[in-house]
Amino acid sequence: MTAEVCIQTGDSVSENRHRFFNALMVTISIRVLIACILGLWEFASPTPPHSKPVHYVAMTPNLALGGQLLVKWDSYWYLNIVRNGYATRTEGTGSSGSAFAPLYPACIYVLTRIGIEAWIGGVLISLACYLALLYYLHEFGATVHSPRLGRALMIFTSVFPSAWVLHMVYAESMFCMVLAAFFVHHARGNYLRAGVFALLLPLTRIVGIVIVPALVVDLAIRAWKNRSIGRSWITLVGAAGGVVVLGVVYTSFVGTPTAFLDAGADWPSRAEVRGRLLPLVWSFAANVGDQPDAMLYGMFFIIYLAAFVLLIRERRDVSGWFSAFYLLALLQMPYICHLRFLLPCIPLHMVLVQHISRSKSRFVAWCVLLGILQIVHARWSLTWRVVA
Questions:
Q1: Domain range holding 354?
Q2: Whose CA is closest to 332, among 388, 276, 379?
Q3: Measured on CA atoms in the order 86, 87, 88, 93, is the torsion positive or negative?
Q4: Separation CA 63–CA 67 (nearest Å)
Q5: Apex CA 37: angle with CA 31 and CA 42, to 5°?
Q6: For 134-151, how does the pLDDT look when each residue is reduced to its tens digit (9 = 90+)?
Q7: For the chain, what is the domain count?
Q8: Which helix (H) or strand (E) holds 387?
Q9: Cα distance from N-terminal residue to C-terminal residue, the chain
Q10: How far is residue 111's CA from residue 120's CA, in Å, rounded to a whole number?
Q11: What pTM was estimated for this model as a whole?
């Protein structure tokens, strides 16, 4: 944390550092507790295997209990990209996995070159990014409001019902970390560093492309209001550079720079809603009956729409415009509803935390409720085992 933030809040640097580490220990303790509960629950009452499509079976490594809780769903796609690259079409789908951005599997591949097993390398990268994410969440809250809000944001994000995915072989942890770092450096006027993280966003998750229109809107409004743009244009150059690099990667390995646009066309459940207005609404209606996650997602999505209204009223900056384009992108995705899609809504998390943390008892009650939801959600969704 910068000394300026500490001076504004009337706290010393050492005192705020001490409180940050206390919050970090609380957050890590919560994560360990939830992991122990899930592990003991699975050990005491194993869930029966469920039949899954052949492409999951083909990509599933032999895993112990820990691996079974950390390698699920799209994890197999990332591991398949590490082993075979984008060029190999996976049996049962005809897809090359081009829906998944290259940075995360590339980092896993680097670790495999030094002898680390792919899925273990993926978990290690996710854990490292998670710790960095906690730091940047704290700095973001401290920069735009107060250190106290930063600490509350750390805890809130860690008890969010889909936060378990931050430890899995998934790019969510890396994407959220890069996004939080971008927000911090942009808010502080460190535009060169913000530009570097803006470049990494599209390479971490495809939806990171929405940082480009968010920056365009932010710069346009600044110019319209005769505000000083300064070197903030560097962030737009970085974001555009990330999109270009993404296109080069896909052209090299898949054959077309826009391969990710057709990545889900082979799934009937996704293809049937393509071309409709707001396809996620149709996808939600189609899946809410047999996917409890869809109902939970719909409930939280409505809450986050309300939080977005509050965010735009309070902060008309790049974090607000990113939230707008990100929510719009979610509405346009013809995907099955998953609660993890809301994890990158960091500015909206901050708005919610700002309102519920005014009372310590209310904040604790919300965290307990969300933690219970996370355990139930993880138990339902993470403990199936892939069988032929």
A1: 3-387
A2: 276
A3: positive
A4: 5
A5: 125
A6: 999 999 998 888 888 999
A7: 1
A8: strand 386-387
A9: 51
A10: 9
A11: 0.85
